[in-house]
Amino acid sequence: MEIIISLLSGVLGGNLAGGLLKKYSMGTLWNSVVGILGGGVGSYLLGLLGANFGSGSMDLAGILGMVAEGGVGGGALMAIIGVIKGMMNK
User: Fold this and answer.
1) What is the DSSP letter of 22?
2) Above 80 in pLDDT, residue 27?
């Protein structure tokens, strides 16, 4: 269940970042795809670093932590890929 929450939060984070950073947006579909990847990878990496805010629990604090991890990971990866894509188009 934790991975599903992280992936869905990644979709939201990717699309939110795409909406805020229109210059780097890749459209809803690709923002969502990159957000899914970023949400999963972000949660995994934060877990490896010991900064796992979700801590694997399904209480309110754990769920909010998983949403934050996935959303930040999805938004960050979307922004990184958007910047790289923008640099390649020059």
Assistant:
1) G
2) yes
Distance CA 81, CA 73 (A): 12
Output the CA angle 43-11-82, nearest 5 degrees.
95
d(CA 17, CA 2): 22
Tokens read off for 5 = 């929450």
- The per-residue pLDDT for 14 is 94
Residue 8 CB neighbours (<10 A): 18
Residue 54 reports pLDDT greater than 60: no
Say how far residue 3 (Cα) sits from the centre of its chain.
12
65 and 46 Cβ atoms separated by less than 8 Å = no
